[in-house]
Amino acid sequence: MKPDGTFEDFRTDEEAKAIAIDLYQQLIVGADFENFAKEYSEDQGSRDNGGLYVDVPVSQWVPEFKQATLEQEIGKIGVPFKTDFGYHIIRVEKRNTTELNDIREQILSELAYEKLSEYVSEILPSKIIEINF
């Protein structure tokens, strides 16, 4: 990672895709997913855990990753897909559902924050006539 928080380009998109396809082909014929994740994954959040995310809410993931985890057949190796973070190969072990009452406050808080941010960035500037220091 660069000092500004962006990722260095270690390979071209075509090279990354080719690597993902090669690993996928090895996985579907029996390679061990956990070992492959530990050896090849560049994801610091799951690499050392054999590619496993435990108790991480789907709402925290980028849309492509979220969609893949929600649509993927449980226990099957999914075809590689791309996000802004690179190519991913996933195997969904299980899905948990959460009751609305258990997350109602969190949802309301997130919606309130979104509305406040929208107001501050889009509406408030047009309301300010003068700023005196």
How is this structure best described in words?
A hairpin with a 2-residue loop joins strand 1 (81-83) and strand 2 (86-88). A two-stranded antiparallel sheet has the order 1-2. 6% of the residues are buried. The protein has 4 helices and 2 strands; from the N terminus they run H-H-H-E-E-H. With 133 residues, it is mostly helical. It has helices spanning 13-28, 33-40, 63-71, 100-127, and strands spanning 81-83, 86-88. The two termini are 40 Å apart.
Give start-end ranges of low-pLDDT stretches. none
**Overall 3D shape:** elongated
One letter per element, helices H and strands E, the order comes to HHHEEH
The N- and C-terminal alpha carbons lie at a distance of 40 Å
Instruction: Tell me what portion of residues adopts beta-strand conformation.
Output: under 5%
Mean pLDDT: 88
The assigned structural class equals mainly alpha
> How many strands appear in the DSSP assignment?
2
Q: What Rg, in angstroms, do the CA atoms define?
A: 20 Å
* Biggest beta-sheet profile: 2 strands, antiparallel
Strand order of the largest sheet: 1-2
Helical segment tally? 4
How helical, in percent, are the residues?
40-55%
Describe this protein with a few key phrases.
2 strands; two-stranded antiparallel ribbon; mainly alpha; 4 helices; 133 residues
